């Protein structure tokens, strides 16, 4: 009697390429852990300064959970493009005027990445890269593998931005404060031109870059979003229909971090005005679910008046709060 051989499932090799920004790096590291937990090989592409932000997290995943996550660091050519020393992330960029130079420097990572992938014993199965890294579309085509786009935003924001760009309703109003309705949304959504995200802001030498991002996304196999159905029901389907691509909710990906150490180590902790002990003591002294946590992200750049108004509003609320702000505001 012949014994039937059961073949082991093929291990997939995912190449993760996040944009160099906190809100993109952190969830991509979490997604890398989730993929590796399924027995897949994960290669995380980054630069030396960015690798420092999650080195301990990845090392713990490798040593304690035996996850095969390999971090590959390529030198970032900041000097070549006139960027400040060690400026390898968007949150360290001192001015929006340098945004084009930053993206030009990021584009230079394509050649060393493809050379590296050529040398791999187990070839890549799929590239998961940030929307902004349009050149990864060409890399995926060269290796004849799918490229999946990762967005740091939710599907509500993605669909809103897509429809505003497609239909230009913001051009139908005469004042920046005048509201307009966004077409093609599951619900009636009104917004003013002054409330549009930065992607609609005119920046020097960025039009062609933005167009390349849109073109590359239209060629992608699909999109993964760090969100979930209960948070925005119907929006994944609506966005999928709008862009004619598959869209998957995979969030909240932070739930892959079961230990407090992993949760605390996510991203760049930076310098804080109070110690961790003082912060926890403050929280322990408050009623459960009574403290507001306020953080607008590492890329948010408030002018002084906005910062003051937000602070006054928090004070006036009468609620206890923890407010996280950037340590350096050179642009203010």
Automatic annotation (TrEMBL):
Top-rank taxon, per record: Eukaryota
Molecular-function GO terms, alphabetical: UDP-glucosyltransferase activity
A Pfam family annotated for this UniProt entry: Glyco_transf_N
Boundaries of every Glycosyltransferase N-terminal domain copy: 14-253
Alphabetic keyword roster: Glycosyltransferase, Transferase
Entry's family note: Belongs to the UDP-glycosyltransferase family.
Protein name as it appears in the record: UDP-glycosyltransferase 73D1
CDD domains from the UniProt entry: GT1_Gtf-like
Organism: Noccaea caerulescens
């Amino acid at each position: 009697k012949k014994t039937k051989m059961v073949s082991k499932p093929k291990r997939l090799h995912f190449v993760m390429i996040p944009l160099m920004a906190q809100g993109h790096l952190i969830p991509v590291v979490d997604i890398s852990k989730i993929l590796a937990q399924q027995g897949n090989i994960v290669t995380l592409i980054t630069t030396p300064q960015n690798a420092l932000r999650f080195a301990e997290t990845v090392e713990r995943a490798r040593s304690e959970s035996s996850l095969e996550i390999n971090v590959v660091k390529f030198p970032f050519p900041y000097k070549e493009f006139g960027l400040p020393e060690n400026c390898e992330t968007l949150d360290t960029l001192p001015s929006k005027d340098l945004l084009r130079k930053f993206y030009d420097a990021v584009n230079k990572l394509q050649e060393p990445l493809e050379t590296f992938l050529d040398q791999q014993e187990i070839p890549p199965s799929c590239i998961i890269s940030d929307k902004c890294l349009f050149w990864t579309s060409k890399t995926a085509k060269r290796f004849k593998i799918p490229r999946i786009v990762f967005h740091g935003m939710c599907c509500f924001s993605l669909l809103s931005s897509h429809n505003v760009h497609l239909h230009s309703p913001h051009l139908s109003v005469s004042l920046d404060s005048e509201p307009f309705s966004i077409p093609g949304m599951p619900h009636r959504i009104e917004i003013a031109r002054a409330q549009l995200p930065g992607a609609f802001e005119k920046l020097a030498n960025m039009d062609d870059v933005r167009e390349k991002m849109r073109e590359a996304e239209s060629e992608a196999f699909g999109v993964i979003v760090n969100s979930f159905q209960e948070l925005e029901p119907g929006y994944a389907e609506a966005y999928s229909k709008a862009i004619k691509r598959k869209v998957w909710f995979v969030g909240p990906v932070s739930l892959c971090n079961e230990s407090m150490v992993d949760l605390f180590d996510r991203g760049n902790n930076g310098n804080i005005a109070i110690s961790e002990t003082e912060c926890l003591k403050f929280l322990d002294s408050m009623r459960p679910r009574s403290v507001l946590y306020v953080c607008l992200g590492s890329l948010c750049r408030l002018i002084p008046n906005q910062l003051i108004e937000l602070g006054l509003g928090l004070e006036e609320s009468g609620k206890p709060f923890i407010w996280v702000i950037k340590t350096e505001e050179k642009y203010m």
